[in-house]
Amino acid sequence: MKHQPYDLIGDIHGHHAKLLNLLQHLGYARHGSTFRHPAGRKVIFLGDYIDRGPAVRETLHTVRGMVDAGDAHAIMGNHEYNAVCWHTPNGAGGWLRKHNAERDGGHAVTMAQFAGLDAEWVEWMAWMKTLPMALDLGGLRAVHASWDAAAIRLIGGRSIMADDFLHLSATHDTDEYLAVEVLLKGPEIDMPAGYHFADKEGIARRKVRVRWWDIPEAAQVSHLAMPEPFDVPGDAALEDLRRIPNYAPDEPPVFIGHYWLPPQRERAPLAQNIACLDYSAAFGNNPLTAYRWDGERLLSAEKYVSA
What we know:
This protein is of the alpha/beta class and 307 residues long. Helices cover 27% and strands 15% of the residues.
């Protein structure tokens, strides 16, 4: 079977110049107000278009322009989801996502770029609500953080365009909340009692974001950590290991972003059918990364492109 070829692009975070550079490097050219590949390739954007970078508006216009023209698909990232919750009243005098600096995630940068453009921001919020949380095209899959078939089944055809589902998804410990968390942010498990680790900012944490493939029958929590394992004692509870989605090696290739892989890390699949395309392009001069998919079931390091 001949597959539509796709170029999958990781987290942009408002770095429009990097996006244009990567599209040009991949062979896309301006076509009216959008970009198109002369050989008919299409892009799949893996979420996190907003926050942190200097050109969020321009990024949104390019991504949406390509989607509207039929030259791309775009899925939801946790930053788009968080933005919707940040701006949605919870009905009790607050917001679905609390407003505090620790949970800002760079959103103040986005809002500064939309100062005085309130009506336009409302339109972008409506567009972000339409983004799917997972994309299954048969030969390949795309999700922002982790592919969990049970979470996808639970969500079904619902989307955060519906207020009832949006509120359920933002209410801690509901099934909807847990499903959205695993798809957009990845599974987490607790360190055993008495153990913690320091995150990249030196903050003591007890929850660890973990991988969701090749899960052993027993392991230290820290050895499962994403994006990089570390070595702090403490074995994972068996019930925690069993609830982690465990993507099988014979399933279709799946592409993700989200995990801030170190920029110096080799561009290569995480598993034979799993590719992460977030190599920290939101920081400094780190380039954006894409994968050129041409129908293969086994992914290859040779298909990665950074520019």
